[in-house]
User: Which sequence fits this backbone?
């Protein structure tokens, strides 16, 4: 008799009715939104902060380059000694004092510029000051050498190479970035899902094994049905939890924005405002939207679902086999490395190889290997992968899952009844041969 549906139902209800599951399902999005809100609130405080920088330019070469803005006020001092300027800077609570010493020529000025402050200044502040001074002093040096700076600026040519396939499909440099982001998010989501809910399956097997409930269950259920029931039931519970997280997170994000006045999308809005005022940034933003619409969205969604399910089931069977082979979570550490390493390798290949050469030998080969294909293939698909390669990779993944379930069930049927002894790889191989 096929007891698989009953086992799936039992595992699912056991998980979703568990107190810790319910608590974490509710608390996790609350904690996450609280952290996001805190970061957004601190970012708003930082963006609203007006800083004052005191400037003492004894050289007279760069005093006119510092123009105050809404967020930064430059207090330019004249006819004052460095000692008095330091005292004044402390009194007005300025961020610091930028001192440009008097020099005979522009060539030696770089060694006579210092920034005095009570605390270490931010890297962005120093970089901004250096950029302003470099541009001003470079132009001054060019004028000193009799070079027409306006003519040089007018002669600058901006090169933006247009990209187009032989079939006439247009793209841009930002297309690769958008494709990498989508592929990376898909691979990372699969990676985290395997780690979180794979461990949940393993702990479930260990708990039933140590409580001896498994001895009663195994008398009327085949080990392979029990293992598949745990994998599928726990997976459904994980999907349920994930959907609840999205719903609660969306509701809480709206509540935080309306009630507390914290705009959790401040960086995105700032970028949009800058894009409207900056033609070059506006063009880049338009290219990003074009790149998004050029993505094979239907292919991505279908492939994501299939490879996500296949990859998760493949690794879940490994976790279930490990749970059956040991008596407690401490003993699982010796078996975890062979499972984690292919996942880490897949992420590494996806990030450092696919973006550089998505159709190269390394990327293509690892997109067919079942232990790495769920991540690598998902990262390759946005760059355009032939349908036959996707189907072959998916077929190999399904076949590998079926084979993994077969030998994992052999470990499962022996290991779930073994107590009091730490298994070795040699003993596990013997179990498979039984």
Assistant:
């Amino acid at each position: 008799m096929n007891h698989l549906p009953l086992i799936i139902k039992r595992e699912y209800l056991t998980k979703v009715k568990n107190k810790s599951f319910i608590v974490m399902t509710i608390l996790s999005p609350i904690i996450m939104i609280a952290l996001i809100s805190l970061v957004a609130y601190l970012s708003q405080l930082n963006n609203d902060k007006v800083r004052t920088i005191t400037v003492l330019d004894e050289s007279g070469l760069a005093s006119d380059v510092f123009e105050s803005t809404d967020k930064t006020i430059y207090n330019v001092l004249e006819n004052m000694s460095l000692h008095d300027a330091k005292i004044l800077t402390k009194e007005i609570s300025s961020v610091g004092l930028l001192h440009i010493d008097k020099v005979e020529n522009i060539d030696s000025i770089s060694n006579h510029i210092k920034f005095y402050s009570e605390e270490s200044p931010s890297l962005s502040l120093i970089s901004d000051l250096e950029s302003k001074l470099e541009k001003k002093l470079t132009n001054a040096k060019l004028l000193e050498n009799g070079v027409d700076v306006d003519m040089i600026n007018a002669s600058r040519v901006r090169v933006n190479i247009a990209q187009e396939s032989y079939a006439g499909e247009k793209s841009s440099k930002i297309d690769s970035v958008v494709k990498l982001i989508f592929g990376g998010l898909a691979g990372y989501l699969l990676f985290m899902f395997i780690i979180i809910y794979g461990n949940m399956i393993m702990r479930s097997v260990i708990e039933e094994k140590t409580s001896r409930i498994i001895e009663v269950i195994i008398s009327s259920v085949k080990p392979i049905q029990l293992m598949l029931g745990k994998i599928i039931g726990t997976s459904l519970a994980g999907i349920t939890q994930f959907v609840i997280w999205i719903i609660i997170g969306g509701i809480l994000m709206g509540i935080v924005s309306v009630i507390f006045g914290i705009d959790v999308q401040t960086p995105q809005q700032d970028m949009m405002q800058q894009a409207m005022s900056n033609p070059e940034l506006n063009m880049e933003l338009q290219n990003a939207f074009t790149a998004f619409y050029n993505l094979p969205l239907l292919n991505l969604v279908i492939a994501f679902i299939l490879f996500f399910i296949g990859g998760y089931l493949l690794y879940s069977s490994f976790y279930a086999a490990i749970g059956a082979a040991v008596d407690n979570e401490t003993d699982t550490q010796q078996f975890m490395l062979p499972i984690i390493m292919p996942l880490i390798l897949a992420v590494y290949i996806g990030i450092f190889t696919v973006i550089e050469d998505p159709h190269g030998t390394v990327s293509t080969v690892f997109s067919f290997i079942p232990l790495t294909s769920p991540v690598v293939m998902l990262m390759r698909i946005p760059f355009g992968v032939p349908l036959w390669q996707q189907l072959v990779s998916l077929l190999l993944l399904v076949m590998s899952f079926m084979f993994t379930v077969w030998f994992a069930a052999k470990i499962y049927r022996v290991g779930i009844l073994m107590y009091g002894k730490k298994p070795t790889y040699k003993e596990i191989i013997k179990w498979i041969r039984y």
Remarks:
- Residues 50-153 form a domain with the D-Maltodextrin-Binding Protein; domain 2 fold (CATH 3.40.190.10).
- The first strand starts at residue 51 and ends at 57.
- The mean pLDDT is 76.
- The first helix runs from residue 4 to 16.
